[in-house]
Amino acid sequence: MQHPPPRRIEAIDLARGAALVAMAIYHFTWDLEFFGHVEAGLTAHGGWKVFARSIASSFLFLAGVSLFLAHGEAFRRKPFLKRLLQVAGAAAAISAVTYVAVPDGFIFFGILHQIALASLLGLAFVRLPWVVNLAIAAFFVAAPHYLRSAFFDHPAWWWVGLSSANPRSNDYVPLFPWFGAVLAGIAAARLARDTGMLDRLGRLPAGAWSRPLRLAGRHSLAVYLIHQPVLIACVWAFSQVFPAPQEAREVRFMRTCERQCAEIRDAGFCPRYCACMLDAIEAEGLADAVFAGGATAELQSRLEGLAGMCTFDTEQGGFTPAPPQGGSG
Predict the structure, then answer these.
(1) Which of 60, 58, 35, 33 is nearest to 45 (CA)?
(2) Taking the CA of residue 79 as centre, how many other CA atoms within 13 Å lie in the half-sphere pointing to its CB?
(3) Which of 275, 259, 287 is nearest to 314 (CA)?
(4) Which of 22, 61, 113, 324 could form a disulfide with 109 if both were Cys (CB 3.0 to 4.6 A apart)?
(5) Cβ of 249: how many Cβ atoms within 10 Å?
(6) Helix 211-218 crosses helix 10-34 at what angle (to 10 degrees)?
(7) Cβ atoms within 10 A of the Cβ of 209, count?
(8) What is the percent of the chain where pLDDT is above 70?
């Protein structure tokens, strides 16, 4: 049977466009960090980390909403396959480009990979009651806190998201917990349909002010693929005219280490612990590999051993910090 396409709800395009703006803000800040114009590690911690996760969650939630709207009543094979091929092809292209550009942190399973997989898996959930989908979504979100295992440490299983430690990647959005956001979107869309909210949402007038956002939302994949190369090119050009001040790598290490440490330990512990780590890394001859961003299993194992030693020494009060002095390097 041929089923008519669902009516387009402009409010959803608007929400997707707003998420794209938020994503561009985050990526622009990441680019500034990459070129040294803001503090190293800024976007990976604190409020920026929450901001990044909120953006990813919003895109996946909206992907679930769209999947229900398009196929909740009847599966429309041709548009589904066309969209799936577009997303999967874009995901493969991003993996290839980032593997060449940043092999130590290339994107092997980012948000587009997640959307492609979630689109396939989500078809099995679009007909379920919303409360069931919401319960399953909660399971996906909670699972990484309880089901991590060394069994999933092999790279072939990294896409699952249950390895004992997350692998290094510039965009890592595995099945667990992120498929939960897609299921939450499916549940919300079904609930909205059952309560008549979708009909009311579809009748909301969209002001002229929202036209650029709605246009971006309709072409979100193209905007996603184009915006970061444009932003990074602009920041690179700016850096050629106004190069960022250079700090000693030891200073950058201390700042990043203390920011990461402060998320789980008190302010008195972190400076002493990080100074201990810096001294230990240099004493072991690992400084060049660490500062170059190396992420081999051997290096990770040695760093974990040093971290355990420094944690013990700092907790016992046996280490007096001697943090590096600032300067050019």
Answers:
(1) 33
(2) 13
(3) 275
(4) 113
(5) 16
(6) 80
(7) 7
(8) 93
Return the DSSP state at 110: -
Q: Which amino acid is at 283?
A: A
| Cα–Cα distances in angstroms (integers) from residue 7 to residues 12, 17, 149, 199, 242, in the given order | 11, 18, 44, 10, 49
Vertex 7, ends 75 and 204: CA angle to 5°?
140
Cα separation of 275 and 221, whole Å? 44
Q: Which amino acid is at 104?
A: D
Please choose, from the candidates 184, 164, 151, the residue with its C-alpha nearest in 3D space to the C-alpha of residue 61: 184
Q: What angle do CA 229, 235, 238 make, to 5 degrees?
A: 140
Lookup result for tokens 């292209």:
93
Asked if residues 12 and 58 have their Cβ atoms less than 8 Å apart, the reply is no
Nearest Cα residue to 253 out of 230, 227, 222, 275: 275
39-84 pLDDT tens trace:
877 888 789 989 999 999 999 999 999 999 999 888 999 999 999 9
Domain ranges, ordered by start, for the chain: 10-240, 249-315
Q: Cβ distance 67 to 182 under 8 Å?
A: yes
